[in-house]
Amino acid sequence: MSLSERRQRLLEVLCLRRHDTYDNLAHEFNVSKMTIRRDITALTCSYPIETVRGRYGGGVRVKTDYLPYRKTLNAKQVSSFAPCGYIKDPKDKHQLIVDPEAAETVKKIYEMCLQGTTKHAIVLYLNEHGIPSPTAYRIEKGLPYSPAVADNPMWGNKIVNDILKNLIYTGDLVQGRRRVKSYKV
Predict the structure, then answer these.
(1) What distance in Å separates the CA atoms of residue 37 and residue 59, rounded to the nearest whole number?
(2) In whole angstroms, how large is the CA radius of gyration of the chain?
(3) DSSP type of residue 131
(4) What is the mean predicted confidence (pLDDT) over 60-83?
(5) At a CB cut-off of 8 Å and minimum separation 6, what does 52 contact?
């Protein structure tokens, strides 16, 4: 079982049980307790999972108001737009495939960041070299885009920061980070 598969399965188990201990989870997944701790730490960044201290009531639990969507648990892309460097598969809209042209831009951003270039300097480089921003690229290629951000074709610090912080470029599909509170009773 790969790292992402184990974390996906761990999330499913926690959503069903709502509460469990590190020892039980380590035994069930046949890994060390430290491995489960690392997985839980990674999952808490994206999901409402919290650790609870205590000898008997301690462990890991999912916040009571969290009810995941079934598509989210099935590791399918459910957002409206694919991240920069990806496009939705024409055969299956829930799968992402690499867009080679836009992926080169993302690779360049990471390459420059690893060399120690500041985010502002990366933005200046991208704008000076005429590399289209993600929204401008989508408009140019006829891909779906958000009209809310369509008026600015230039790169900005926020766009570069979002790309550098997005876990999808490490191979993890993270969803459900933002929710609209429902006031329905």
Answers:
(1) 10
(2) 20
(3) P
(4) 64
(5) 19, 58, 59, 60, 61
How far, in Å, CA of 111 to CA of 105, rounded?
10
Q: For residue 122, what pLDDT is reported?
A: 93
Residue in the structure block whose two tokens are 């009531």: 57
Backbone phi and psi for residue 55, each to the nearest 5 degrees, phi listed first: -70, -45
In order, the DSSP letters of 53-110 are: -STTT-EEEE-TT----HHHHTT---SSSPPTTEEE-SS-TT-EEE-HHHHHHHHHHH
Question: Given pLDDT bands bounded at 50, 70 and 90, which one contains residue 185?
Answer: low
Dihedral of CA 43/46/49/55: which sign?
A: positive
Q: At what angle do helices 100-114 and 134-141 cross, to 10 degrees?
A: 170
Give the phi and the psi of residue 99 in degrees, each rounded to 5.
Answer: -95, 105
Contact indicator for 107, 44 with CB cutoff of 8 Å: no
Pair type for strands 96-98 and 59-62: unpaired
What is the reported pLDDT for 16?
Answer: 80
Q: What is the pLDDT of residue 69?
A: 52
Q: Which amino acid is at 115?
A: Q
Distance of alpha carbon 56 from alpha carbon 51, whole angstroms: 13
pLDDT (mean) for 149-160: 79
Cα of first residue to Cα of last residue in the chain, in angstroms, is: 41
